[in-house]
Sequence to fold (166 residues):
Amino acid sequence: MKCLIVFCSTHGTTAKAAHLLRKQIEGDVVVLNLQRTKLYSDLEFFDAVIIGGSIHAGSIQGKVKRFMKENMDILERKNVGLFLCCMREGQEAHAQFDHAFPERLRETAIAKGLFGGEFIFSKMNFFEKMVVKNVSGVNQDQSTLDLESISEFARTFNKNNKLTLV
Fold:
């Protein structure tokens, strides 16, 4: 099985999650950060695609949105997993997930995950620090990255990917 994990990471949390996930996904896995490259491999080469992003100012990164839109026809024929890094919890996190990913992909995804998030002030610009302080009241580094959610996503993805490839 060949799998592509494609994501955007602004401050490194989604990259961290993607690389932790890579270690747990079975088969040949390629990890690609859309923030660092405009080029990506031919999706037809992959059996499965995992798409991840994070929430900034209430929305997933534009490069992730564009990737999904430009490749929707191919993605609908693949085993797809979706994950989101965000600081919200519960119903708010689920609402952000639903807003981040198109319904067509959410309905057919073989695995979905909410992986928590991080505020890393040393990687934020002045404006980002002010927004985080005003919106969340947080003024220092904070992490809610959920390693168990990443592992659960990998277990679900591996199991469901095997079932559909048989």
In short: The chain has one domain: 2-165. Strands lie at 2-7, 28-33, 48-56, 59-60, 79-85, 111-114, 118-119, 142-143.
